[in-house]
Structures are given as structure tokens and as C-alpha cells.
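Protocol check, entry for the methods section draft. Step 1: assemble the input record (protein sequence plus ligand SMILES). Step 2: submit for complex structure prediction. Step 3: store the C-alpha cells unaltered in the notebook. Ligand used here: zinc ion. Step 1 record:
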Amino acid sequence: MICQSCQKAVPDGTAVCPYCQAQLNASNPFSSPTQVPQANFAKQPANNPNQGDATGGVIPYKNPKALIAYYLGIGSGLPMIGLPIGIAAFILGVLGLRDRKQNPVIKGSVHAWIGIGCGGLFTLLWGGLLLALILGVAFG
Ligand SMILES: [Zn+2]
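Step 3, stored output:
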């Protein structure tokens, strides 16, 4: 059949023209009452402010603890000053994960885990080096 709106050939029985989105009621008039609510339903996710929000993206803006834990976790790789940064990253990561559990919509579990992982790892590394240094000085 031919779309009355854009004159392109579309498969018979198509409710909505795939080229111009015009309602194709002529050949199938009984389908139109059910097509209208479906078309409205399909539009809803795009118009819904809760969908496609920044929180649905890569960066968990609404979970600042997890986000800060992530950056501190990376910063904890700095020699020696990374020790307190790593401890902070670990704690913030745990807090961020707890917030994420209480309110899953804020997301951030990946960032929180990176903070916990990197922060914990570098805390052990720098802490171990510092301990070795202290022991080395003490017992020379
Ligand atoms: Zn058309």
C-alpha cells in the first residue's frame, strides 16, 4: 500500500508509516483506537524526566561519595601521600556503596568499588612500605 502522507510504499497492514510516522488508518480502520494509546506509550520514556537522566549515564552525579572515592582511589596511587588518600577512598567507597544500596537510583557502585579497590590496594602498598621503612630505621 501507499502512505497517503508521503506517498511511499509501505507494507500492507502497517499502522504507522515508517518514513513519515503518519497514521495509516485507511486500510485498517479498526486498528486505530488501539494504535493511539500505543503511540502515546512509546513516547513516554523520552518525555519522562526520570528516564535518560544524568544518573543513567556513566558518571554517578547523585552519588558524590562514590564519585569522590573513584577519584581518590586513582589519586591514592601517588607515592606516600597516597596513603591517607587511599584510606579516604576506601571509606568513601564503602559509604557510597551503602548509599547506593539504600537508594539504587543514584547508581555509582562501579565507581565506589574502584575507590575501594584502588584505595584499599594502595593503602596496603604504601602502608606496607611505610612500615618497612619504620622497621628499617628502628632495627637498621
Ligand atoms: Zn509516510
